[in-house]
Design brief:
The chain is mainly alpha-helical. The protein has a domain of about 80 residues. About 70% of the residues lie in helices and about 0% in strands. The protein has three helices and no strands. Helix 1 packs across helix 3 and helix 2 packs antiparallel against helix 3. About 15% of the residues are buried. The N terminus is likely disordered.
Length: about 110
């Protein structure tokens, strides 16, 4: 238990500014087939905003990694954590983009002009 607490302390002490990098919250998916035009527009705007905020977040986290002294053991754990956060956010960006595109396709199928 002591080693876990110590490791957590080291991770926090090694990255004091990491707390400034806040991951954006993904938007709720929308059912394009049931959505109104306005709901779809809003959902698409929210998806674009999430993707843009994710780019800023990933840049912030990358800057934190670049400023971390990677010569000590705890810094390697911090680096792995940062890379994991970037990968998770990238996966969420892709999921949100795919969901938005699927909603658009479903809307077009349900509302042919």
């Amino acid at each position: 238990m002591r080693s876990v607490v110590f490791l957590a302390f080291c991770l926090c002490a090694a990255t004091p500014a990491l707390a400034q990098c806040i991951a954006p919250v993904p938007p709720a998916p929308v059912d394009g087939a049931a959505a109104s035009e306005e709901q779809l527009r809003t959902a698409m705007a929210q998806a674009r905003e999430f993707i843009a905020q994710s780019d800023v977040y990933q840049g912030c986290v990358s800057t934190e990694m670049e400023s971390t002294d990677l010569t000590n053991t705890s810094a390697k754990a911090v680096e792995a954590s940062i890379k994991s956060r970037i990968a998770a956010n990238q996966a969420m960006k892709e999921k949100v983009g795919t969901a938005a595109n699927s909603a658009m396709q479903a809307y077009k199928m349900a509302h042919p002009h």
